[in-house]
Amino acid sequence: MRRGTTIYLYELAWILPSIAIPVGMLVALVVTAFGAGVHVPSDAGRIDSTRVAETFPTGVYELAPGQYEVRLLGQIWTFAPNEIRVPRGSTVHFWATSKDVVHGLFIPHANVNVMLLPGQLAHVTARFDTPGVYPIICHEYCGIAHHVMAGKMVVE
Amino acid sequence: MNRLTAAYLAVALVALFGGVVTGALQALEHAGVNLYPAVAAVVKSYYHGLTLHGVLNVLVWTTFFISGFVPWIAVRALEVPLASLRLGWAAFGLMTAGLVLAAVPLMGNAATVMFTFYAPLKAHWAFYIGLTLVVVGTWLVTLNLVITHRAWRARNPETRTPLAAFMSLVTFVMWTIASLGLAAEMLFMLIPWSLGLMAGTDALLARVLFWFTGHPIVYFWLLPAYISWYTLVPRQAGGKLFSDPLARVSFVLFLVLSTPLGFHHQFTDPGIGEGWKLLHAFITFAVFFPSLLTFFSLVASLENGARARGGKGWVAWFGKLPWGDPSLAAQVLAMILFAFGGIGGLINASFTMNLVVHNTAWIPGHLHLTVGTAVTLTFMGITYWLVPLLRGRQLWSRRLALIQVWLWVVGMAIFSNAQHRLGLMGMPRRTMISAAPYLQSEWQSALQLVGIGGTILFVSAMLYFANIVLTVVASREPAAVEVPFAEALSGPEHAPAILDRWRPWLVLTVVLIAIAYGPVLVRLIATTPFNTPGLRVW
């Protein structure tokens, strides 16, 4: 075989797996994303960040047995409410936003990970089956005391 | 031209020095050693140090090194002089002036907003204007490269553009297109707002424009390392580049695909539909294709070199690479750590899996493998031959350089692995973690490793600076260094002609960007009220 042709075959031998690997991963991604019903945050509408004190009452509300709505406001350097209590097995619908700068709402090991941007409503839903105390962490730099911005999620 | 490149390198190295020192402070803080009170005269807080670390390392060190090295290698490959040395110095002057302007508020703790400067955190206007001037300076570098290439093309109408020059052009053209997002954010939002001409701003639109540039900027850092890996390293390894056409294909794909995927940094942002995020995830996986091509080509080229040196076996040939050459060792080891960085990057890009890692310590773990090693260790490796060449003196100590390279790899392996694990355990990034009320006891052992790895990296960096400075001021042996351009097994004559044409690829680039960003940007610009006031809360 001519030298040039051999090299062409070598190139093809690398090109095909280079296509196959990302395509295979992509299929796995789509299947798990839609099959498992885990969602990344989507567009949940705007809210006027300068008027959230009047328009966005915070708190924990029981919608139905096992169904809770948490309306949570991030502000330098606290969450309101700062402590959330729900019984085990609850599905919690978080509605959250920021009053001032960019904050984050992060509950490790619970698939709650969303940015709180002033001007935007954020919405995530998570189910808490394991009892325990979960930290609620602001995971975006929000000023000099960013590291103290945290709350508690108690699953009873 | 050599003086211009040396000037860029000097600024880049000063920035890296500042970035490394502030980085060490952070690593030690994580291990429970708080040195900030001792340096309070210069570094006012953990977050001031963190901003300095990020801006100096990922914005200044990279951009200045690249603007010095890439045009230089392009001109060497084309074998023509730079079109306008005066324009070259004008670009350097503008970038340096911008850097000084931004450095004043940055050093003075008036711009402690991280290198991502998310509004509504509001820095001093000089910070935004200074950074914008640096970006405009890089556009002049692009212009100079394009004019130089046209002059070469006029004299060589039938020849393929030499590979290193082609890659250099792709790098700067891609960057210039990608930087428009950042430029728009600066010119229409942050600068008028910081000057008091606009009452408010908008967090989401600012982030969308930032990440329009913020992902392709990592390719702007990475592609110059690829230029070295493709066109120089095979020769340094004693062999030839596996395939010139394959290299061109991968660079054309980087041009086309680098920009329309910034939402993968915003998977957890509200205000952007899930469908758009999925589209950007798809395109991110498409970029994995040229990355894999690069990986396979480079391993094949290294194998070619090692076998020419007597290497045998499936894997054992790897030991036959010229490991005594610090420049080669640095770059091959950078490639190996980058393989892990690439795999981690795929996890970040994997849509719902991003919920586990977004904004955790996993992310700095990832980017210290990519920009912190693939890019930085490669650039260090390049300077091990480039500085002797520019100075005309041999490297002060090869042995010291080899020690430095291996220390970097060991330190980074420890540091990055610990950061990745901390991220999976739920530790946030960008946080003065020793002072956090939610500090978990299970994080402690990994936090100690962050401190140990960071310290090793700091020592490695100091050895690097010592070697470079001594090469410049104390080395007496004249150096006969040449640019190690590699030949190719399959040469440019095998490359399809369309790879050397620009219009179809540029049109495709713009169309993809319009599809991926157009509708979201139009909606945001039409509906954004720009009413969020700025805050200085650091």
Write the layout of secondary structure elements.
The complex is a heterodimer of chains A (about 160) and B (about 550).
Chain A: H1 3-35, H2 52-55, E1 59-64, E2 67-75, E3 78-80, E4 83-86, E5 90-98, E6 103-107, E7 112-116, E8 122-128, E9 132-137, E10 150-155
Parallel strand pairs in A: 2-5, 4-10
Antiparallel strand pairs in A: 1-2, 2-3, 5-8, 6-7, 9-10
Chain B: H1 2-30, H2 46-78, H3 85-107, H4 125-155, H5 163-178, H6 180-194, H7 203-214, H8 216-231, H9 233-236, E1 241-243, H10 244-257, H11 274-308, H12 326-349, H13 354-357, H14 362-391, H15 398-424, H16 444-473, E2 488-490, H17 503-527
Parallel strand pairs in B: 1-2
Helix pairs in contact in B: 1-2, 1-3, 1-16, 2-3, 2-4, 2-5, 2-8, 2-14, 3-4, 4-5, 4-6, 5-8, 5-10, 6-7, 7-17, 8-14, 10-11, 10-17, 11-12, 12-14, 12-15, 14-15, 14-16, 15-16
Number of helices of chain B: 17
Return the domain count of chain A: 2
Cα gyration radius of chain A (Å): 22 Å
Provide the CATH top-level class of chain B.
Answer: Mainly Alpha
Total of DSSP H or I helical runs spanning 4+ residues of chain A: 2
Biggest sheet features of chain B: 2 strands, parallel
Which CATH class of the largest domain in chain A is shown? Mainly Beta
CATH fold assignment of the largest domain in chain A? Immunoglobulin-like
- Quaternary structure classification: heterodimer
**Poorly predicted ranges of chain A (pLDDT <50, ≥5 residues)?**
none
Mind telling me the C-alpha Rg of chain B?
23 Å
Q: Any idea what the CATH architecture of the largest domain in chain A is?
A: Sandwich
